Write a sequence for this structure.
RNA sequence: GCAGGGAUAGUGAAGCGGUCAAACACGGGUGACUGUAAAUCAUCUGGCUUUCGCCUUCGGGGGUUCGAAUCCCUCUCCCUGCA
């Protein structure tokens, strides 16, 4: 059975994903599913560049504002919710458009990542207290293939022990009936775009947003590990000035963009476009995708 | 003006006679990544070289020494105490 059609838009931050997805959604009767690990949290609006209330009212949006800022979350949960959203959108006879920069979230859907049903949650707290050496021993004693992962990555080591296996990646077999569009900018104006975006965030009241989060949740690491948020900590401690906060956010955002680029580049199913230069080409491609519906 | 302290890689900072191209941290590059992912981890980061290795460095100049970033003299700049 051919799966329901799915349009996916990926790209580094500031590449124009939001803009394009809104255009396409309006034009092709679509609904947007966000694949953004920060926008999924409530009250983190400005720093995550969530679509505005107006934009969200014009096009149905899924998986934005669905958990509390400090709530535990995982890719496994994300995948579950995204699949449900896709079905829901199909039931409404709309085109599902999966949009975001969180590569792992995207992959979990388009490569159908499998996750274990019942994860022993409190085992993790115990494992967290152990050091790497001990974790390696546990892994080896359990007959796990610890050599196949980066051994100094405690988090992954724990994950391996928890799940009891490693999933082989297969980046060639993407979901059927899926069109994946990747957006990129020319290198020169990238930094400028990021700078502008950060300045806009400041004008929109990012400082207040972060202040409010801090006073409600403290320096919770689910919130303050994120770009646009963590950079304020030394500022609140009177260690740096506002200009430094801004330049740090710009710097960290540029690094994020680089990481996203690295992540998505491995994915051979992506069709890349220079945006917004080649917008018309994308529209053409999507048009034929919808009329044919037999991609891949 | 006198007495102390300091000047080391993009930045901060170890080293205080040989094993120093120089720990460590940050910053930067590249990459990995199926349950925290805007996370976490690996790797490189003076120049030339694929590796071996070679070359130039420790504010400037001059000494002592087989050998100096490390000791001495002197100059420049910075900080501290007394004037």
């Amino acid at each position: 059975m051919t799966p329901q059609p799915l349009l996916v838009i990926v790209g580094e931050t500031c590449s124009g994903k939001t803009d394009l997805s809104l255009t396409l959604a309006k034009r092709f009767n679509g609904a947007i599913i966000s694949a953004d690990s920060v926008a999924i949290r409530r009250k983190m609006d400005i720093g995550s560049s969530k679509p505005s209330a107006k934009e969200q009212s014009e096009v149905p949006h899924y998986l934005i504002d669905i958990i509390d800022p400090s709530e535990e979350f995982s890719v496994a949960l994300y995948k579950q919710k995204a699949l449900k959203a896709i079905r829901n959108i199909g039931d409404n006879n709309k085109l599902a458009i999966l949009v975001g920069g969180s590569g792992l979230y995207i992959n979990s859907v388009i490569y159908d990542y499998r996750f274990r049903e019942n994860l022993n949650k409190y085992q993790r707290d115990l494992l967290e207290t152990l050091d790497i050496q001990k974790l390696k021993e546990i892994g080896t004693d359990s007959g796990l293939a610890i050599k196949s992962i980066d051994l100094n990555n405690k988090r992954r080591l724990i994950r391996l022990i928890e799940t009891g296996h490693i999933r082989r990646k297969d980046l060639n077999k993407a979901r059927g009936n899926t069109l994946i569009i990747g957006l990129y900018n020319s290198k020169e104006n990238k930094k400028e775009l990021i700078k502008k975006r950060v300045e806009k965030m400041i004008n929109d009241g990012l400082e207040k947003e972060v202040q409010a989060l801090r006073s409600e949740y403290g320096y919770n690491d689910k919130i303050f590990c994120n770009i646009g948020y963590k950079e304020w900590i030394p500022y609140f401690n009177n260690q740096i000035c506002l200009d430094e906060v801004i330049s740090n956010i710009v710097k960290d955002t540029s690094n994020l963009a680089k990481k996203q680029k690295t992540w998505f580049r491995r994915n051979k199913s992506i069709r890349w476009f220079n945006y917004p230069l080649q917008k018309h080409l994308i529209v053409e491609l999507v048009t034929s995708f919808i009329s044919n519906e037999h991609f891949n």
Notes: Chain A has two domains: 6-114+168-292, 121-163.
